[in-house]
Write a structure and sequence with these properties.
The protein is mainly alpha-helical. It has helices at about 25-35, 45-50, 60-75, 105-115, 120-130, 145-170, 175-190, 195-205, 210-225, 235-245, 255-270, 275-290, 290-310, 315-325, 335-355, 360-375, 380-395, 400-410, 420-435, 440-455, 460-475, 480-495, 500-515, 520-525, 525-540, 555-565, 570-575, 590-600, 605-615, 635-645, and strands at about 1-5, 10, 40, 85-90, 90-95, 620-625, 635. It has 4 domains: about 1-105, Winged helix-like DNA-binding domain superfamily/Winged helix DNA-binding domain (Arc Repressor Mutant, subunit A), CATH 1.10.10.10; about 175-270, Tetratricopeptide repeat domain (Serine Threonine Protein Phosphatase 5, Tetratricopeptide repeat, Alpha Horseshoe); about 270-505, Tetratricopeptide repeat domain (Serine Threonine Protein Phosphatase 5, Tetratricopeptide repeat); about 505-645. It starts with a strand and ends in a 5-residue tail after the last helix.
Length: about 650
């Protein structure tokens, strides 16, 4: 059974025949379950999604729709046999189908795969993926509030795919072929600067310099006159390069160089040559720095590359394959913990297998990798690996190795609360080291670490300078993920400097919108609800949230406060007893502040005193601000509340 939402909602059986989905309400139930991506949608939520003013008998109607849909999508299911696709679970229903059964999911996977493929394969894949669109996503339900975010997300992905397809054509030297599609694209979506840039570049590479400059002038006119904003740096730089006959190589040269070089590599280097693995990791490292789908693809393929290296039984090759991926990181929760654990295990095996010798650099890179990929985990292996990697790097005098090792040290600098000054010192050394030796990605990292640390210390003047420096370097190096991080910092700064509650919440929501598609699930999931909760707790506003809020990994620390907001102190106290020890990461202090605040509300004196003891070293910091994304306010304020509560005073 296949389902289509890239256009009107449809279904087809295994023979490709259309399935009768009955009426519009039946199709809406199916579409709503597809949007949920396999998660259970409670019947009560379906009722309110289908009707603005639910009629009597709405619940019975929903169950009737579901029963009819089951007959349509599982016609061969025997009576009283459990459903396999549209299942009942808990308070509602879920659609459990493979990813390739839904056209929108296939489209997402195709676009993600294309980002990691050479231009010719990417072009074919994107052509096929874009051909699957039959109209606007969820076209039957244009006004449905439940579909709005998903429709917008898919449309943005489609527009990005159109632009990526044009890039592939340019890389292959097919500039003339790219022009018609891009011309139509900018006509329909005139506010997309990247589309204007690609159109101008395609015209220039097709030998139409005058037309290219005219396009750039049109883009500038629209942006300035209609929106009141100047074109971005990439658009301005292209105009300067065209006028100077510099910058991008003359018509089609970039695409030809890439195509010729990759073709020569494929023809010259045997498919099973071990050097291919090292070349692959070099490309993956660059791909990871692009963010979005590039980062997601790089993380996935990195694990495959490590596994392939281990299969060859050459520890020195495996050490190089693992250690070459020195992608900087400033967030202490792993995007994919299971992948990280596999890399750590491989690095440990390789350390054991390496023969004793003078090449300590390989060992240091393995140790730094262990420190990086052990972020947020318990135990002393990560800190020990980081310290040893740093010692080796300093002894060898290798700047790039030391920068990688210092990143590992930073990731393990969360043994207790109040270590923002230590992280600031690491960031300062990274900035100086990287600037002296041309290590731009680590210089950006150093500024981000200092932005976080100075924010934790409420030194926003210094934090602003480091955020601006990171943005400048990122623009030069084309590192889009940096903008995602600095936007969160600016939202945090807005909150911490006294913005009204509505404005503060809006700032967090705007920052969260930039996370979608950034390729960092370890940062994205649950972060916005947590930021809003910390804000409300700081401002002494009840934590009034929706039942279906996805707290992600932060649920244990949010639940007691949510229960208290619903006047359920007994349940809140029980939830507090089940709360785990917060991970030693950038949100360590914030989670303890939330825990202590809930403990005060239910009168858990032992937990209040524990929270005070843990947080005391951070008395001069803003709780959570060291993350660069959120804050629960001054730690000192919570310590005073804990002191009063533990002595029987009013909190």
């Amino acid at each position: 059974m296949r389902f289509g939402v890239l256009g009107p909602v449809r279904a087809w059986n295994g023979a490709g025949q259309a399935v009768d989905l009955k009426g519009p309400r039946h199709r809406e139930v199916l579409a709503r379950l597809i949007v949920a991506r396999g998660r259970v949608v409670p019947v009560s939520r379906l009722v309110y999604d289908l009707w603005d003013d639910p009629p009597d008998g709405a619940v019975v109607a929903v169950r009737t729709f579901v029963a009819a849909l089951r007959r349509a999508v599982e016609p061969d299911r025997a009576p009283r046999q459990p459903a396999r696709l549209l299942v009942t679970e808990g308070p509602g229903y879920a659609l459990r189908v493979p990813r390739d059964s839904v056209d929108a999911w296939r489209f997402e996977d195709a676009v993600a795969a294309a980002s990691a493929e050479p231009p010719a394969r990417a072009l074919n894949r994107l052509d096929e993926a874009l051909a699957g669109w039959r109209g606007p996503a969820y076209a039957d339900f244009e006004d449905a509030s439940w579909a709005r975010a998903e429709r917008s997300r898919l449309e943005e992905l489609r527009l990005s795919a159109v632009e990526r397809r044009a890039e592939a054509r340019l890389e292959l030297g097919h500039a003339a072929d790219a022009v018609p599609d891009l011309d139509a694209h900018v006509a329909e979506h005139p506010w997309r600067e990247e589309a204007w840039r690609l159109l101008a570049l395609a015209l220039y590479r097709d030998g139409r310099q005058g037309d290219a400059l005219a396009v750039l002038r049109r883009a500038r006119g629209l942006l300035v006159e209609r929106l009141g904003v100047e074109p971005g740096p990439r658009l301005r730089r292209l105009e300067t390069d065209i006028l100077r006959q510099s910058g991008d190589l003359p018509a089609d040269a970039v695409g030809r160089v890439w195509a010729d070089a990759t073709a020569a590599y494929d023809q010259t280097v045997a498919e099973n040559a071990r050097g291919r693995l090292e070349s692959t990791v070099g490309l993956l490292r660059i791909l990871a720095l692009t963010g979005g789908q590039g980062l997601a693809a790089a993380q996935q393929q990195r694990v495959a590359a490590v596994a392939a290296a281990e299969q060859l039984g050459d520890p020195e090759l495996t050490a190089r394959v693992i250690g070459m991926y020195d992608v900087p990181g400033s967030w202490t929760r792993s995007d994919h913990p299971e992948r990280a654990a596999r890399v750590v295990a491989a690095a440990e095996r390789t350390l054991t297998a390496l023969a004793p010798g003078p090449d300590d650099a390989a060992r240091a890179r393995l140790l730094a990798t262990i420190a990086m990929e052990s972020r947020g985990t318990r135990g002393d292996r990560g800190p020990r690996a980081a310290a040893e990697a740093e010692r080796i790097a300093r002894r060898l005098g290798d700047p790039a190795l030391l920068a990688f090792a210092l990143n590992g040290v930073f990731m393990q600098t969360f043994q207790r609360a109040g270590l923002a000054p230590e992280r600031d010192r690491i960031g300062a050394e990274l900035v100086g080291l990287a600037a002296r030796h041309g290590l731009a990605t680590f210089e950006i990292l150093g500024h981000l670490i200092r932005m976080q640390a100075r924010g934790a210390l409420a030194d926003f003047a210094a934090a602003d300078e480091h955020a601006a420096a990171a943005d400048r370097l990122a623009a030069q190096q084309e590192r889009p993920l940096v903008d995602v991080i600095t936007r969160w910092y600016r939202a945090l700064r807005h909150v911490a400097t006294g913005a009204p509650l509505d404005d503060a919440e809006a700032a967090y929501r705007d920052a969260a919108a930039r996370l979608e598609g950034a390729g960092m699930p370890g940062l994205e999931r649950g972060l916005l609800p947590l930021a809003l909760l910390c804000l409300r707790v700081w401002r002494d506003v009840p934590a009034d949230v929706d039942d279906d809020t996805d707290w992600g990994p932060y649920a244990p620390w949010a639940r007691p406060l949510v229960l208290l907001a619903r006047d359920r102190p007994g349940d809140a106290a029980a939830a507090l007893h089940r709360i785990p020890e917060p991970p030693r990461d950038l949100l360590f202090e914030a989670k303890w502040c939330l825990t202590g605040r809930a403990a005060v509300a239910v009168g858990d004196t032992a937990l209040i005193r524990r929270a005070g003891t843990v947080l005391a070293p951070a008395a001069r910091e803003l709780a959570g601000a060291g993350s660069g994304v959120l804050t629960a306010g001054p730690v000192a304020r919570y310590l005073e509340q804990f002191r009063r509560a533990s002595h029987g005073g009013v909190p």
